Each structure stands twice: as C-alpha cells, then as structure tokens.
Amino acid sequence: MPLPSPVLDPPFTITRASHVVLDVADLTASRRFYEEVLGLVVTLAEADTLYLRGVEEACHHSLVLRRRGGPARCARIGLRVLTEGDLDKAQAFFAGRGCPAARAEVAHQGPTLHATDPFGIRLELCARMPTEPRQITRFHRHRGGSALRIDHVQLLTPHLEAALGFYTELGFWLTEYVGGSAEDIRAVFLQRKGNPHDLVFFNGDGPRLHHVAFMVPETQHLLRACDIAGELGYGRNVERGPGRHGPGHALFVYFRDPDGHRVELFNTHYQVMDLENEPVRWDPHDPAVAFPWGFPARKRWFEEATPFEDTEVQPAAVRPNPMTLERYLAEGS
Ligand SMILES: [Fe+2]
Q1: Residue 201 and residue 160: Cα distance in Å, rounded?
Q2: Domain stops at, among 87, 105, 132
Q3: To the nearest 10°, the Cα dihedral for 110, 213, 235, 296?
Q4: 310 C-alpha to ligand 1 centroid (Å)
Q5: 92 C-alpha vs ligand 1 centroid, how far in Å?
Q6: Residue 213 Cα, ligand 1 centroid: separation in angstroms?
Q7: How many domains is the chain built from?
Q8: What gap in Å lies between CA 247 and CA 193, rounded to an integer?
C-alpha cells in the first residue's frame, strides 16, 4: 500500500481532536480521580454529567463524563471544525459516504454534528464552545498531574488501511507509522494541529477507544500524579510507565480510571507542520518502538479498551503479537 500524501484542500476543515464523552458509573468517584490525580478542572457539575478541562484550556470541556447504569462505554470522540459552515460540508460528506450524520443539540457547546465514520467510530464535530478563564497561572489551584490540555485519542480498528485513507482524505497528515513496510502497517499517527498526532489508529478488535491523552507541563508532573494516585488508593490504576515512547518520543504514564477507561499523561511532543517532513517508519520488530528502556506493557494494555455505545466490536483479521511484560518475564529477555 503506498503511503498517502497529505490532502491540502479537504472537504471541510477539522482543526484538532477536542474532547471525549465517556459513560461512568459513579460521578463522585470519577471526579475524585480526574480532579485529584490528573489535575483536570471541573467547569460544571450537573446531576448526571461532569464537564472537565485542562488547566490551560479555555473551551468549556475536553472531557465529558455521563452517569450511566450500564457498562463503561465511549459515547463520542470530539473533533473541532473551524466554522459552522464546515459542519454543513461535513454533513454532506458523511452522507455521501453512506455514514449517519445529523445536527445535534448538545449542552454547553455550539453547533454540533453527530456522525459515525465508516468504521463505527462515533464522532461529534463541534464548531464552537463557550469559554472560561484559563487556569494556567492559578498555580495554587493546580492539582495532581496539572493536566494542561487534551492532545490526542488512540483508537483500535480492524480496518486500519481504510481508516488511514479516510482520515487522510479529511486532511489528517500521517506523521509516523509502525510497520515492516508500507504494505504491512500496524499503527498510524495522524495529525491536524501540528504536533505528532490527534488521532492514532492501531490494528485490533474495534472500534474501541484505547486511550485519551492529556499533556502535562513537566516530567515531574507525571511522577506527582503517580504519587497522588498511590496516596489516594489508585496505585493499582497506574497501568504502564512512567516510560518513554518510541513514536512521538513522549515521556508518559497510563492510568485506568475508576470505570476502566484508559487515560495517558505525557509531555515532550515535537512540532511537525512542514510538508517536506516524510512520515517516520518504526520497525515493529525493533524493541525500541514499544519501550526504548524499562519494561514492556502488560498484556492487558494491548488487549483491553473501551467499546463505543451501541456499536458492535468486530474482530481484527490479523492478531498482533506484541512483546508483553508477561512474555518478557517468562522468556527472561
Ligand atoms: Fe497516546
């Protein structure tokens, strides 16, 4: 498969991955975790919905938690578009592809389009949000990891090649990929906002949300979040890391929230916004891809993820066989 070239005049303008809507069982438990461990700011607490944002974010929310009685699900992946006119263009585009797409009234955000991509990923395209004062210099109010802003979401799909083509057509640039060759791609990193990724797709049973990621100011905030997690009884929720990624190069730590949704804190992304930057290939057989140092992730990090609401999970045709912590220890490597 040839690598796709950037599309410079997409059918409508997406600016970034902007928010995630998750279903949770207990808003009080979720609020404690996200406020105290990650350091997100509560913009608004309603009876059944919690709206949170990072300390440098002005827009009303980057994480919406809805109290639901059922299993933990992802309701929507939020994407910002530049203008309301882009929503009309997006609706026509999705409809033309046979994808569900309809305007929606969503509280505390402006004009919104609900659409489902060809791979079953439930999207929420939004043109505007109310704004709140940034909390970035309210240092005395910062908690936990001082999460600054949402950066990206990672998704699992059995239709990786098709997803790469679809989102390239929507203007996403391929910055990095994991693959033995251009014909054997296992993960793609796609961006709109000028750093390594907004949307990441890995091959796997899907559609499922693997994680949502928030940026932190400094390396110390990763450790501070871990320390506070341990103090508050979330020590076992620290699932992977701290460590350093191959792709994207970030220092990271992954948590599981009280409902099992996975969230990443990270820092040190680089900028990539010039056309002459070729996509970086990572060899899946090179251990430095998954863990340049330290230990590989547990098996569950590779296999567990959040399904989407009202969406059937389809099995991947090709099963990945990554180096897991369990296999690493068993083999004594
Ligand atoms: Fe990530």
Answers
A1: 7
A2: 132
A3: 160
A4: 25
A5: 31
A6: 5
A7: 2
A8: 17
Enumerate the β-bridge partners of residue 203. 157
**Tokens in use for 257?**
């929230």
In whole angstroms, give the CA distance from residue 65 to residue 60: 13
The rounded Å distance from CA 306 to ligand 1 centre is: 15
- For residues 70 and 175, state if they share a domain: no
Q: What is the pLDDT along the chain (333 residues), one digit of tens a residue?
A: 678 999 999 999 999 999 999 999 999 999 999 999 999 999 999 999 999 999 999 999 999 999 998 899 999 999 999 999 999 999 999 999 999 999 999 999 999 999 999 999 999 999 999 999 999 999 999 999 999 999 999 999 999 999 999 999 999 999 999 998 767 899 999 999 999 999 999 999 999 999 999 999 999 999 999 999 999 999 999 999 999 998 889 999 999 999 999 999 999 889 999 999 999 999 988 877 778 899 999 999 999 999 999 999 999 988 778 889 999 999 986
Residues 77 and 200 in one domain: no
CA 60 to ligand 1 center in whole angstroms: 22
Calculate how far, in angstroms, residue 198's C-alpha sits from the geometric centre of ligand 1.
9
Ligand 1: distance of its center to the CA of 290 in Å?
A: 12
Do 93 and 229 sit in the same domain of this protein?
no
Residue 138: inside a domain: no
Range of the domain at 184: 151-331
Q: List the structure tokens of 74.
A: 């992802």
